[in-house]
Write a structure and sequence with these properties.
single chain; 72 residues; alpha+beta; 2 helices; 22% helix
């Protein structure tokens, strides 16, 4: 795994707008996340692979790796 792959992201709940710093799994997409503030179960937006690609300030590590591979 490259050093430029981010493993932490700030996830913003679409329901209550709470921001939560979360460690992302490095080898898989995370399909569900329960907001610690309001309890909303977050699911990926249509066409997105996971909650991080849908609601975070960074793509998930697998998508980051994919993007880097295409840039090479």
């Amino acid at each position: 795994m490259q050093n430029d792959i981010k493993t932490e992201a700030t996830l913003t709940c679409p329901e209550c707008q709470a921001k939560q710093k979360v460690t992302m799994p490095i080898n898989a997409c995370q399909h569900f996340y329960k907001c610690a503030n309001c309890g909303e179960m977050l699911k990926p937006k249509e066409g997105k692979c996971c909650v991080f690609c849908s609601y975070a300030d960074s793509l998930c590590p697998p998508k980051q790796e994919e993007k880097l591979a295409h840039e090479r």
